[in-house]
Amino acid sequence: MEAKGKSNLYLYLALVCFVGILAIFVVDGYLGIYDTLYITVQEHEQVIEPDYWQQSWVKESGYTTGTRKGEPVYFRYKIENRSFSTYLSNVEASVWKGGKKILQMLDEDVQLAPFEDVTLDWTLRVEDLEKAGFWAGEYGEYTVRIELGQVERKIILSYYPEVPGYLEKIPPQPVPVPEPSR
Known about the structure:
182 residues, 25% helix, alpha+beta, five-stranded mixed sheet, 9 strands, Immunoglobulin-like, four-stranded antiparallel sheet
């Protein structure tokens, strides 16, 4: 009889260890500070998830996107505090050209209670670049840097020219006319 009770004890210990290991993976994968960036160009929203930034080639080169000359670029930056303590940090967003900061778009202190999030919005307009004296005319490439404490995110933003007469070069397609039924 005692052998059966002892084997159940080992089974319970194994189950407790298994549940503990699962709990560690769940807690480790969920807890922390997470940031998600939403970029809207030409009415197309691009979502950059937190795990995207962990890739080695992204850390060096950043995220690349582009838009037509003159189009504004909308940014939405969501910061989530998935921890049991309050998170306090400064968030900066700036535009760089040739290794020099040319425009400060955002500089804000953020304080997040445990399991709280905040979303920050800002817009980059061509007029802002022109005021800074750095509009490249027909084509330009800029680096948008977002700094959250010690973390830096880089977005390479390219402006490309509109091709005049592009839509006029596409021949109109004939519209099929349904035949009348008899």
